[in-house]
Predict the structure.
Amino acid sequence: MERSGTAPRRGGAAGRGSRGSGTWTSALSTGEFAAIRSVGFEPVGQVMGSAVFHIGRSGRYWGYHDCLFPGAGYGFGFSNVGTAPVAVSGAGAPSKALVGVFDQARRTALGRMSAECQALGGDGVVAAGLTMAPFEGQPNCLEFKVIGTAVRARGPQHVGQPFTSHLDGQGFAKLLGAGWVPVELLVGMSVGVRHDDYRTQSQTYSWANVEVTGWSELVHAVRADARRQLQLQGAKQGGDGIIMADSQLRVWSEGCLRARNRSNSEQEDHVAEATMVGTTVARFQVRQELPRTLSVMPLGDRGKLLRKRLAAVASSPYGDRAEYRRLVEEISELND
């Protein structure tokens, strides 16, 4: 398969310059910025990764959209040829090779964004958005691009491999506060093909209000396969769960490859493409702190807020020790 990922790497010298100057850029809102700092992180810069791939051998003309139906191409008078299956990429259909190219392109873009994050000294990326669009002037090329904001923990503990997540600042803060950490931004994709067999044609020509069962089976199969691919990727990364970001479905019809080979160019297949995006997350161990004995219980909302903040800092693997000591001192002053 012809493909190329020749997009220039970004974030090398530019990333080091930003890190050294102490000036950072981001697309975070004021609320997101405050939320990230409230859980011991700070932004270090906007990061991105891109990859341009040549998808020259795509579509039905190269056999990727093969319906795998032996009865394709025969006249509909031969209704005993059976029911058409759904040829799904995740089950080894010819479209699996095409899905593999898309997956490689996305991973390339994500890897370059992670490299920029590391160059800035970041521990991970939040508010990452992934897009795929035609490359201008080249109809057989697609650009895969991902942009987010790199963040760094203020404490002494840092991760070896940066995490990537679609969660915004508030979502990231809530996730850490609940005892979870993001691991990686994932994309599950599936392509399915189903021949418009005799039964499907009969249902579409019916005067009654009936379900077109073949098309229902098609969209159900590709959605289930995309979800399964997402779950397999999450388990491979060691995640405990996945937080969904987006789900898309495209369906279109095209001339059947097998029918055309049998000189029956009028029969059609329906093709469905499902894409699911999410972030895999993992639990972190919450440390059990012994309660301190207090002679006087702090009164008012301030004491409650300080204790809540102290518990969050203590349980987070990225907790800032200086922040922890400061909170302890403030609580002690309230008790005096």
In short: The longest helix spans residues 96-119. The chain has a mean pLDDT of 82.
